[in-house]
Amino acid sequence: MTPDVRDRVERQARAARATGGTTRGTMGPPSGGAGGAADATGEPAAGRVPESTWARALELISGADEVALACHVSPDGDALGSMLATGFALRSLGKRVVASFGDRHFAVPRLLRFLPGQEMLTPPGDFPAAPELMITFDSASADRLGLLRANVHAAREVIVVDHHPSSSGFGTLGLVDPRASATAMLAEQLIYRLGGTLDRDIATCLYAGLVTDTGSFRHSSTTPAAHQMAARLVATGLRTDEIARELWDRSPFGYLKVLAAAFDRVVLDGGLVWTYVTRVDRAAYGLPYAELEGIIDIVRRTDEAEVAAVLKEDDEGAWQVSTRSKGAVDVGALCAELGGGGHRSAAGFTSHDSVEETMARFRELLGKAR
Ligand code: AMP
Ligand code: MN
Ligand code: MN
C-alpha cells in the first residue's frame, strides 16, 4: 500500500474514534449506518454497527497488504455482489485482493455472470490457507463458507459483514446489522468509509445484492434506507432493466421442462405448499443447480398457504431446502432448528435424508410453531 493511502485510511480511523461520528467519503449516504436515514424513518439506532467497530475495521484493513474475501456457498446476488463491490474498493486502495466461495464445484451461477470483477475470483483450493486479514460476506456462520471454513479458523483477523439475525458471532470483528435489508448495505458503508466512491462497477454489484435480497423491493425487508441506497446506485447510470433481465427474466429452455416436473408434484398440505426437484429432473436437460433459485418465488404465491418450501437436490445429492413464510411463522427459527438459518420470512437448511423424512421433520416443527 502506498503511504498516502495508508495515511488516508488512518486519518479516517482516527477521526471516527475522536468524533464518534461518521467518516464516510464524499459520496456517502445522508446518514450513517446500514439502517440509513434513521431520523427520517424513526427506526431506532439499536442494532447499528458501533462507530468504534467501524474504526477497528478500517484499522485492520489499513494494516493489511492482502485482503482475502469470501462469501457463502452457492452465492446469491447479495453474497457475490457485496464481496466483489468491496473487492473493487480495496483494489483501488492498492490492496492485493483475492476473493472466493467454498463450493466443491467452483462456478459462478449463470445468472450472476454479468457481475463485473470476476477476475478477482480464485477457486477455494488457491485461497490463502491462513490469511492475514479475511472478510466474509452474507454468512451467518463459518459453516456457510463451505470449504473456506478452515481458512476462517486459521486467519489472523476475520471481519464478518452480514445482516442475518441468526449471525453466530464468528470472526474477530462483526460489521453485522440485522436490520439491514442486504449485506450490500453494509458493504456500501464500508466502501464509503474506506474513502471509496461509487462507480458503475461497484454500483452494479451492490445493486444486485440489494434487489436480490429485497425481491425487487417487494419483501418486508425493504426499508426507506433500501430505496435511498437504490437511488444512489441508479444515479451512477445503471441499466436496471438489463440487471433485472439477467437476474430473473431469462433461462435456458430446460428450465421450463424442470418447472413442469416440479409443479406436477406440488402438494398443498394445510397451510404448507411444497415441491421438490431432483438431480435426475435437471440431468435430462443439463440444467445447473443454480438455475433453480427462482422456483420458490412461484410456489410461495399460493393463496391457500402461509408457508412454502422447495427441496432442490444439489450435484452431491444433498437436499437444499428453500422456505418462505408470509410473516406469521418464523421460518428462520424453524430452519435453525434443522441446522440451517436465514431470516423470518426467507430461510433454508440442508438435508441428507429422503424427501419424505425431510418434510416429516419440517412439518412437525411447523405444527409446533403455529
Ligand atoms: P434461499 O432459499 O436459498 O434463497 O435462502 C434464503 C435464506 O436462507 C438466505 O438468507 C440464506 O442465507 C438462508 N439459507 C439458505 N440455505 C441455508 C443453509 N443451508 N444454512 C443456513 N442458511 C441458509
Ligand atoms: Mn445470501
Ligand atoms: Mn443477504
TrEMBL record:
Residues 287-366 form the DHHA1 domain. It is an enzyme of class 3 (hydrolase). Residues 15-29, 37-47 have a biased composition (Low complexity). Residues 67-209 form the DDH domain. GO terms for molecular function: 3'(2'),5'-bisphosphate nucleotidase activity. Residues 1-49 are annotated as: Disordered. Its EC number is 3.1.3.7. InterPro entries: DDH_dom (IPR001667), DHH_sf (IPR038763), DHHA1_dom (IPR003156), Oligoribo/pAp-PDE_c-di-AMP_PDE (IPR051319). Keywords: Hydrolase. It comes from the Bacteria. Residues 1-13 have a biased composition (Basic and acidic residues). This is Bifunctional oligoribonuclease/PAP phosphatase NrnA. It comes from Nonomuraea indica. The lineage of its organism: Bacteria, Bacillati, Actinomycetota, Actinomycetes, Streptosporangiales.
